[in-house]
Design brief:
The protein has two domains: 211 residues, 3-Layer(aba) Sandwich (Rossmann fold), CATH 3.40.50; 116 residues, Rossmann fold (3-Layer(aba) Sandwich). Helix content is 27%, strand content 22%. The protein has nine helices and 18 strands. An eight-stranded mixed sheet has the order 4-1-5-7-8-9-12-13, sandwiched between helices. A four-stranded parallel sheet has the order 15-16-17-18, sandwiched between helices. Strand 16, helix 6 and strand 17 form a beta-alpha-beta unit. The protein starts with 7 loop residues before the first strand and ends in an 11-residue tail after the last helix. It binds aspartic acid. Aspartic acid binds next to loops.
Length: 347
């Protein structure tokens, strides 16, 4: 195949276990640089694609990921958007689902694959899962139909043989290779001997709509997870933060909360201050339905928004992007109930 005809893939290396080695003094895993990383994966040179690399310098543990670093990743993609057919992001697993969710909102109208992956074992270890994750991600980023159109034009996580929509994915396992799960949306593809794509589940290419990046995020968001016995003074202290613009509450079951007058009063006060309160469930699977029980209905009546079947990662990052983009709270409120990037199932 002529070099010009080869599919072009850009790998963006941000860090994470996939590129770590053990520090002989402390025994802890630490990142190593791009050069050594490439030495460890000579297989990349055998793939029939034109592959280039960009990297965070130095690479980071994904626990240090921040909105400003999402902006850097998004800018790398925007800068290289016309040149490459697809993108692979190597990332630590700890906050991978946040990054995948954030990018899905930051890259509106994305029409090319952005496949995020990493590993549970460093790439230099014999039993590493990193090579399969990386090489298959590159295959998926390059995959196209007979007319050269990408098969997966969206932000995804590929891990342990499954391709999942990025903003539906959560890290669920610290030990095993199947570190991610997409509870409320089926996998977009599974990789065995062949990669089987489920075209019905994949977002269509947005026609006639250019890529519209949203790079300025607003981080004035907080998460409040409810539990039996939660104290009024602690909650009120947290919610009185002056800069607050949105609160995600993690409720019980189908979106229920204790029937404590002070709690409802707190939510009503937030609403009066123009602060959005969004209800998502602590359950891994299923959706919030606030009208199902009295304990949920009271929240609806206090002006709490339904977060539907959002993951925590999606809810937080969607709010950051919407707050960064819009001043008008009513506009944001309306967008919370729309699926912008396939992130919620709208009833
Ligand atoms: N702490 C690592 C990180 O998220 C874990 C991993 O990569 O799996 O960067």
């Amino acid at each position: 195949m002529d070099n010009r005809e080869k599919r072009k893939v850009l790998i963006i290396y941000t860090g994470g276990t996939i590129g770590m080695v053990e520090n002989p003094n402390t025994g802890a895993l630490e990142n190593f640089g791009l050069h050594r990383f490439l030495e460890m994966v000579p297989e990349l040179g055998r793939m029939d694609y034109h592959i280039s690399l960009e990297a965070f310098d130095p690479p980071i543990d994904s626990s240090d990921m921040e909105p400003i670093r999402w902006k850097e990743i998004a800018e790398m993609i925007v800068r290289n958007y016309e040149t490459y057919d697809g993108f692979v992001i190597l990332h630590g697993t700890d906050t991978m689902a946040y990054t995948a969710s954030a990018l899905s909102f930051m890259l509106e109208n994305i029409a090319k694959p952005v496949i995020i992956t990493g590993s549970q074992l460093p790439i230099g270890q014999l039993r590493t899962d990193g090579k399969e994750n990386l090489l298959t991600s590159v295959e998926i980023a390059a995959a196209c139909d007979a007319s050269g159109r990408p098969i997966v034009p969206e932000v995804c996580i590929y891990f342990d043989s499954r391709l999942m929509r990025g903003n539906r994915t959560t890290k669920i396992n610290t030990d095993e290779f199947n570190a991610f799960q997409s509870y409320n949306y089926p996998p977009l593809a599974t990789a065995g001997i062949d990669i089987r794509f489920n075209a019905r589940l994949i977002r269509p290419i947005p026609t006639d709509k250019p890529l519209r990046p949203h790079l300025e995020l607003d981080d004035r968001v907080m998460v409040l997870s409810l539990f039996p016995g939660i104290r009024q003074d602690f909650v009120e202290a947290a919610l009185s933060a002056k800069e607050l613009r949105a609160v995600v509450i993690k409720t019980f079951g189908a979106g229920n909360a204790p029937q404590k007058p002070w709690l409802l009063e707190s939510f009503l006060k937030l609403r009066a201050r123009g602060i959005l309160v969004v209800n998502i469930t602590q359950c891994s699977e299923g959706s919030v339905e606030m009208h199902r029980y009295e304990t949920g209905l009271q929240l609806l009546n206090a002006g709490v928004e339904n977060g539907h079947d959002s993951t925590i990662e999606t809810c937080v990052t969607k709010l950051m992007v919407l707050l960064g983009e819009h001043r008008d709270t009513e506009q944001i409120r309306a967008l919370l109930h729309q699926s912008i990037a396939g992130e919620i199932t709208v009833p």
